[in-house]
TrEMBL record:
Residues 29-250 form the TauD/TfdA-like domain. It comes from Pseudomonas triticicola. InterPro entries: AlphaKG_dependent_hydroxylases, TauD/TfdA-like. It comes from the Bacteria. This is TauD/TfdA family dioxygenase. Keywords: Dioxygenase, Oxidoreductase. Pfam families: TauD (PF02668). Transmembrane segments: none annotated. One of its GO terms (molecular function) is dioxygenase activity. The keyword Oxidoreductase applies. The keyword Transmembrane does not apply.
């Protein structure tokens, strides 16, 4: 009888190892059995679910027409290394992807690497560049949806200390094309290629670090990937299976 009482009062008590994993490694994967298909219920244990660019709390990551040439979530294209929503103050603390149906084509991985570790590596390998980052804020721009006029724009440091923890920001699309969600026209000219600015060098070093050190995660059907968005850089590999369907959540 007492066991039943415990199960009802603390349905997710067995998830402490997932919280530990998230804190130590920066990401974790929950199996469907661990959250009994109550995605929003289990996410509340990690943080409040907050609205995304379009005002919704659950965003479909699946192929939609009109984005075939863009590195956008609702295309099947690869998306370069980034932290989510760097134009938000603060950006979502955690990101979650619930996999309804994973790609079966060999692509569609979520790559993850520790951005704070990357910055630490620069302290010894590129001390002047690392100092430059502390002295120079970077403009981040986000068009809510490619091709639409709504834009958010902020000036933020790559690493921002706050009372709740350090916030790391990185965006391949921003550094190369001047927008987190670039238009087709913006994609024609990279601001990083052939550029010697400190930000361009930082972008190239970050990309190289990601390629060398990232863990590619192919979230199994039904599972829930959660990562620390103030710490981890993520990216998506290109895929060709149109049935791939995930739901994205932002946690405050
Ligand atoms: Fe993302």
């Amino acid at each position: 009888m007492s066991d039943q009482g415990l199960a009802v009062s603390a349905p997710y008590a067995a998830l402490s190892h997932r919280h530990d994993e998230l804190a130590t490694r920066g990401w974790t994967v929950l199996t469907p059995e661990e959250f009994a298909h109550d995605v929003e219920g289990v996410l509340h244990g990690f943080g409040p679910i907050v609205p995304q660019f379009n005002g919704q709390t659950a965003f479909a990551i699946t192929r939609k027409p009109g984005y075939e040439d863009l590195p956008y979530s609702q295309s099947m294209n690869g998306i370069g290394p980034h932290t989510e929503a760097p134009v938000y103050g603060p950006p979502p603390r955690y990101l979650a992807l619930h996999c309804l149906r994973q790609a079966t084509c060999g692509g569609g991985h979520t790559g993850l690497v520790d951005g704070i570790e990357f910055l630490r590596s620069l302290t010894s390998s590129e001390p002047e560049l690392r100092e430059w980052l502390d002295d120079h804020p970077v403009e981040f721009v986000a068009t809510a949806k490619p091709g639409e006029p709504d834009q958010r724009r902020v000036l933020e440091y790559i690493l921002t200390p706050t009372a709740s923890g350090d916030i790391f920001r990185f965006s391949y699309n921003q550094f190369h094309y001047g927008d987190v969600n670039p238009s087709k026209q913006a994609l024609e000219q990279s601001q990083v290629a052939d550029s010697d600015t400190p930000l361009a060098r930082f972008a190239r070093l970050g990309e190289a670090y990601f390629v060398e050190h990232n863990t590619p995660v192919l979230i199994p059907d039904g599972c829930l990937l959660i990562w620390d968005n103030w710490r981890m850089i993520h990216a998506r590999s290109r895929y060709s299976d149109p049935a791939r369907h995930l739901t994205r959540y932002w946690l405050g």
